[in-house]
């Protein structure tokens, strides 16, 4: 019998999990008999298959950032101009933990990066380079990776629409070609910063996803948008949270990060200083606290977030995870006590990890921080990545510069 679904159309969490009932403060979702309910037979059956007819079915949604990965892609293009010290602080600890693919504009920037890092004692010879005339916010336009039941890893390409940035669309195709992976288009305008995965089939995004698609002619309802994430990415649950209204960046990674499969960190604003943001973050934390993932209650931990300064969203959740190393943003103008609390919280949650700060004062003026300028290559592709990049020595992996 087809599984029906009874949905309040104002829902903020959509799930394909085979559970009897999930109750939340603002919506209700019931999976069971179609009798007396609103049947979404066509869409739901497609979602429960979690895949494509022409290339197997999705067995694993994108892994969590905190999981072990084969490589990290880092956007150096604008970062080299914005803040050379940030490049050093970022690369020095990373090269010892994970393979690095640095995106630069071309040969001139590659030489600049090698000289800079070598002068500061960073073994630049272990870094791979790719020439791409793109910005540094790699997370937003890099592909996602999913694994099918037949073992095939597929790159997913959502639509990237950012005014004045037309070259970024070449990145997913170039990486798929480099790693010899099949590609699949996703009919969603979606920036990667607005998608978090816990590696167990739970995704977080914000309702800014709907507005982004509406501005590009796709008038999706919350149900439709979350259904597409489930259908193409293999997610079992999607929580659509409130964005920080009025902020320059409306992505979920500006105020939340998974530190484990069943553990999420959510920012907290002082209601005396920023009442609207405090309310949004408190409601988001409350919603997440009522979600279960693979039978476990999602643990929510709060960390402080400084008040918003126009153009500077000083986030402490926009972090980089790199195989036992966690890099956390540092802002010189924030009270040192706040940053000590942030670092202490992460150390308590990740006791076996090395936690280190990176100055993001210059980066944040561009609208993002550490996660924004990076993207992971999953461990599923470790052998393929190693075969492709066998002899680094400042290897040029890709040249999409057109020169």
Task: Provide a concise account of the structure shown.
The protein is of the alpha/beta class.
Describe the structure.
With 403 residues, the chain is α/β, with parallel strands linked by helices. It has helices spanning 41-49, 77-82, 84-94, 107-119, 138-141, 170-178, 208-214, 222-233, 275-288, 336-349, 382-388; strands at residues 4-7, 13-15, 21-24, 27-32, 58-60, 69-75, 99-104, 127-131, 144-148, 153-159, 183-189, 196-197, 202-206, 237-241, 256-260, 263-268, 292-293, 296-297, 299-304, 320-321, 325-330, 354-359, 374-378, 396-399. A five-stranded mixed β-sheet has the order 23-6-7-8-24. The chain has a four-stranded mixed β-sheet with strand order 2-14-13-12, sandwiched between helices. The chain has a four-stranded mixed β-sheet with strand order 5-9-10-11, with helices on both faces. It is globular, with a radius of gyration of 21 Å.
Structural class: alpha/beta
- What's the number of extended β-strand segments? 24
CATH class of the largest domain: Alpha Beta
Helix content: 25-40%
- Give the rounded overall mean pLDDT: 83
Count the domains.
2
**CATH topology of the largest domain, which one?**
L-arginine/glycine Amidinotransferase, Chain A
Task: Quickly count the helices.
Answer: 11
> What is the correct CATH architecture of the largest domain?
5-stranded Propeller
Strand residue percentage: 25-35%
The CATH homologous superfamily name of the largest domain equals: L-arginine/glycine Amidinotransferase, Chain A
What is the rounded Rg?
21 Å
